[in-house]
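Today's session is about reading a structure prediction critically. Students often jump straight to the picture, but the first step is always the sequence itself: look for stretches that repeat, for charged clusters, for runs of hydrophobic residues. Only then move on to the predicted structure, which in these notes is written as discrete structure tokens rather than atom positions. Here is the chain we will use throughout the hour.
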Amino acid sequence: MAAIDVLVTAYNAEATLREALDSLLAQTFSDIRIVVLDDGSADATPQILADYDAKEDRVLVVTQPNGGIVDALNAGLSYCTAEYFARLDSDDVSLPERLGKQLAYLRSHPDCVAVGAEVLHIDANGVLLTDLPDLAPVESADAARAPGREPYLIHSTILVRRADMEAIGGYRHSPYSEDSDLFWRLAERGALFSLPEALCKYRVHGASISSTLVNGRIMAIGSQLSALSAWRRKRGLADLEFPRELTAELRHAGALDGMYELGARLINADERDHFRICVAAKIMEMARYRPYEPDAGDCAFIRAALPCGRHLSPKNQKELGWYVTVTAARLVRKGLFAEALALTPPASYPVAAARVLLSR
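Below is the predicted structure for this chain, in token form.
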């Protein structure tokens, strides 16, 4: 049995799969097995995997009908039997020392259940990207904040003790947020840590799930439900359950207000205002570094949600005000004046205007 099982899920990944697998086979720590779960690919992915399966003893290929990322992750996890479980997305690249350094950290820190790493961001062609925002430190996680700040590791870089993965039941159907939901639950079993050096290349491209506005709305709903779920557990309350059909229902709803109502079905009436302001804040947070802006409907939702943040700390309320004026200024600079007006309360006009002027 290998020391580490690395799970790679693949769906129509012909363009990047070989580079991902080769990066794992080139690890300086070689006592690994690579479990590749082909989630019903319709391109050349099966042929590529057949080649690796025939030539590489350390590669196990599993194929199933397309069922989505959560089902693929859990199916792949069921084939992982090593003491340690690692992940790599089929469009990312592990640098040679990644697994060795992560394993050394986990073995020397028995209180730690999962370790990630910093990444180099690359585009679809592998060109290095710069000026992307840094993730918040893992230890700054706060489920009660708006938006909920998860103990986030980059999912494609994680190495986890498999016993802890099994103890929490694997992945759940949190809409487009199965990773952050996982980290909330792992953090309840021990420390999470991100090594402060780049050990992976992380691909940012238009085909990623978070690259469209509709998907961003879904992710905002899922991530904030996961944070609320963690906040519930911390207070000894009943955990949320995520219906597997929720993601499809959110996509059908399309608009943010309709998505909010679907998500609100899962929570108590006294949690609705907190959930609303968290979703509004998350949309603004994501728009800072995603290839889209909130539309007029999103902006109206955000503005209507602002009074729901009165229960937040003064510091958190100040952060929300900063998000509003920064978002408004960015919308104005892009000529999206109707959206900026829909978003911005009159009291915030002077600050938003100053941000527009100072940015020139």
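Discussion point for the tutorial: Residues 213-234 form the longest helix (22 residues).
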